[in-house]
Amino acid sequence: MNRRCLPLALVVLAVSAWWLMAQQFAPPAAKAPDPAVLKNITAKTEKLAGLVAMLRKQGVRDPGLGDVEIHLKAAQWIVRHGEWYQPNFADWTLDVLDRGLLRASQLAQGEIPWMQVTGQEVLRSYRSRVDGSLQPYAVTLPADYGKDNRKRYRLDVVLHGRDSSICEVKFIRQHGEGKAAPKDQDYIRIDIYGRGNNAYRWAGETDVFEAVDHFSAVERLVGRERLLDPTRMVLRGFSMGGAGTWHLGLHHPDRWCVLGPGAGFTTTRGYIKGLPEPLPGYQEACLHIYDAVDYAENAFNVPIVAYSGSDDPQKAAADNIEARLKKAGLPMVHLIAPGLGHSFPAEWVKKAEAEYARHAGPGKGRAEYPPKVRFVTYTLRYPGCSWVEVLGLDQHYERAVVDAERTDDGFTVKTANVNALRLTLPDILTAPQPVKIDGQQVSARPYRSTSGQMHVYLQRQAGNWTGVLPQRLYVDHQRKPRKSHALQGPIDDAFMDGFLCVRGTGKPWNEAMHQHATKELQRFAAEWDKFLRGDLPIKDDADVTEEDMTTRHLILFGDPSSNSLLGQALNGLPLKWTKDAIEFAGKKYPAADHLPVLIYPSPLNTAKYIVLNSGHTFHVADFQGTNALLYPRLGDYAILKPTPNDKNPQAVEVITAGLFDDSWQVK
């Protein structure tokens, strides 16, 4: 966006503000507990905190310790944010603390009895690699789980709907010990917290997979991994959980044997009424990240059993997908309850379950190596399906397709908007593999990865496909940065994996811009705490370790004078920055009242990002509005001019913003 576009930007902001006021999902008014009750909560919290500290000092670790400590976090967070949304929340908090105290006493005796419970819901937790926070999830094991070592169980991952009063205490109360599983439940059920109400986007997306992977790791630890059938994993949810199912199911189609979305949304435009059209180009492009309808054709790889009430406006979610699939000649089951609105009653749940069983019952499940894969993507954040992985795109946020088949004669592949590709072989084969790709015949030598699997690597240059060494691709990316999986932007992408915010301790060049960056970090910390349910990882620049730089994205706040890491990285970033001016994309901006924000492969570790002066590019109003508002606002880069006012101390004028091309260059 340039200065000539500012009137449009103001219109966009005005219309967006109107829509936010019209569709708020802010929590109900909170009422603090009676002082005596709050005193009791405080006393029990201190007691549990002391026991957790003692257990940690004694060398007790996860998974047992985390399953105790999550009760402590729940009590601390509800007090911290004053989330007393219902009269019974105070009593629930005391109950949660009592559960934590009981577990602590059991763990002190070397016992973890909740790991052996079957036939009822049990709370577990994991520590996220994203921010180190403790996050809850719930597991319901069938009553006969483990009684027959020959039996293998399907696993259902269940995503909850929007709940404006949800918090850790409420989730634990809903899913803690004591709630019996249905007598006929013949599968494992995992209920995901997903960090609250973000529609399983960004860190909420990572949360789903971390919870599932943590469950599998614990079962392996206790010797029950043989009971799991990874080919029979069902993803389902209703309302916001339906939106999450559409999103995670179609972006990751090889993880599931069937999708069960109910209601939800599958587009941004159309679901958000009154959304300006068009948005700035970089925002419009980024809608392709999460608009599940764009990935509808990935239903080729995973069956869908959708549910809608006939009178529910959210029926449009399934209608959108169904229309795309009809054009592609692909089937979809759509259960429609006549005369029903936004509800999913038990009789329709039972009908949906009967359809799931057709794909997830004993002897069913997805093929471990399907003969055909058809995969659509718009970003390398979602790079592949089964034995197909896209390693390079010509242009991000444009439709990319791989249509591939494995036969006895090798591979036949058709692509669009793809310039590098990895195909995994079904067996340990060392002979050159014939690949017919986009009409060209290529002989590609297989290479063994560290996992022991064999792959062929293909690259298109000057219109011609050739087999290529994987090391060649890697070195080419080192010499000439290219967007690749988990290194493709936009700014918000950095917060889906481990990151560290770094504040400068030196003397800034311009105090006003330093204060803006400092307050931006403070805002990010407050929003992360409230809406993503964790303490924001922050260190001073002088305290950052080699391990930090190796394992985490670095989010640098300040300028090259105030932040020593920014000063070290500056020569490897696509801008010049002095006390007087910021030079970017051939233009200069006064450094006294302008600030750059961007995401870029880190010059300190090219496997990680560096981000300048930005957390998430959406804020409180977006978190409290419909989940569809959680789309990127600044793309890969921007030059901002702070314009603080009484209503918004962090207000800015966007002078320019956009997306780098696939070589990390300004278009």
Describe the structure.
With about 675 residues, the protein is of the alpha/beta class. It folds into four domains: about 30-235, no CATH class; about 240-345 and about 360, Rossmann fold, CATH 3.40.50; about 370-395 and about 395-480, no CATH class; about 490-660, no CATH class. The chain is built from 15 helices and 29 strands. The chain has a seven-stranded mixed β-sheet. Strands 1-2-4-3-5-6 form a six-stranded mixed β-sheet, with helices on both faces. The longest helix is centred in the first third of the chain and has 23 residues, at about 35-55. The protein is globular. The protein starts with 5 loop residues before the first helix and ends in a 9-residue tail after the last strand. Mean pLDDT is about 95; it is low at about 1-20.
In DSSP terms (H or I, runs of 4 or more residues), the helix count works out at 15
Measured between the Cα atoms of the first and last residue, the distance is 13 Å
Question: What Rg, in angstroms, do the CA atoms define?
Answer: 26 Å
Mean pLDDT: 94
Strand count, sense and barrel status of the largest sheet are: 7 strands, mixed
The proportion of strand residues reads 15-25%
How would you sum up the global shape? globular
Query: What is the total domain count?
Result: 4
Oligomer: single chain
Helix % is 25-40%
**How are the strands of the biggest sheet laid out side by side?**
21-20-22-27-26-28-29
Runs in which pLDDT lies below 50 for 5 or more consecutive residues are 1-22
What class do helices, strands and sheet pairing give? alpha/beta
